[in-house]
Fold these 2 entries.
Entry 1:
Amino acid sequence: MKSSTAIVLLLAAFIVGYAAGALSSPIREYIPTTTTVTSSLRVTSITTVEKFTGEVVEVCFSAVMDCSSILQGYLRKANKSIYVMVYSFTQDELGDALIDAMERGVEVVVIVEEKQVSQYSEVEKLRNAGVETYLDGNPFLMHHKVAIIDDVFVITGSYNWSKSAEDRNDENLIVLRGRELATLFMNEFKRVLMEAAPA
């Protein structure tokens, strides 16, 4: 029993180490593979189902860095489109940046988790400004924190677009660049949008 657990832990460590090394490379090709890890308790399959290239552009940790300013910078530099899926959205500055983008002709579409809409949410402000805004239709939770910008940048991580994420929590934000990668996230955005309802 102990030896099989040790084997599973070694395999898991190898997989995590390989993934971390892949992300640290400037450009990496991810090829569809399936790895099966077996123990006496359960069988787990880890599958990468798509192939893409991409690079890590920036990483931010909110406890010691200003992630909001980084995110605002990318929103303000958008030329064509911004598609957002976010669990919690209460940061006024990010709402303002999306409204500014829409007013300069950028297509802006936002999906927010319905259970997180409150008097503090940016949803009403966005809707009143004319930003295309939706509430997620998943009966459970839409827990994404993603912005897809100009079909090339993907901003994701644990960082909600909330004041708590910036000022209180330990959060991470990662900026990725790659058209294939953006397409993968865009496909997920379209799937979530199909279930969403206008705010």
Entry 2:
Amino acid sequence: MSARPRSDGERSRTGERIRREVLGDPHVDAAQAKTTPFTEPFQDLITRYAWGDIWERPGLTRAERSIVTLTVLAALQHEGELGMHVRAALGNGLDPARIQEILLQVSIYAGVPTGNRAFAVAQRELEKAGAVPPSGDGDGGAGGDGAGGDDAGGDGAGGDGDSDGGDGPGGARNNGSGGG
């Protein structure tokens, strides 16, 4: 079962559409506004291949792709990207209970400190989205032994999900790539 080859232009158009459907127009517009001549090839790469090819494939639903994405981002501690994809996961049909289960699984296999940070990021993003009640502690933390109390917000410097408005690889550790 092979799909007909698609041109780069078709991939770009498809990628732009899916990216906007998953992340929302405001995020994509902001990321594109931050694009520079240096970061433009990266924007093109993620639009065509991440969004125009991988997110377009029929083998997984968008909810399933969100599960995979949340798992990888949490395990790799890409907190800025994780926050952005927690918001996207809500739009892709995951509820806070499913996100919680994903992060519990990550906590066992990637380590409790990693899970602790991921819960802090997810709590903050779910609160922002109105999907869970506010934690009341003001730091978005997961409670327990220090989750979120320091800089576990994971936004990076930008405050909108990562330091560079991106939805490509790297998140908060992606210093200035212009991703997304």
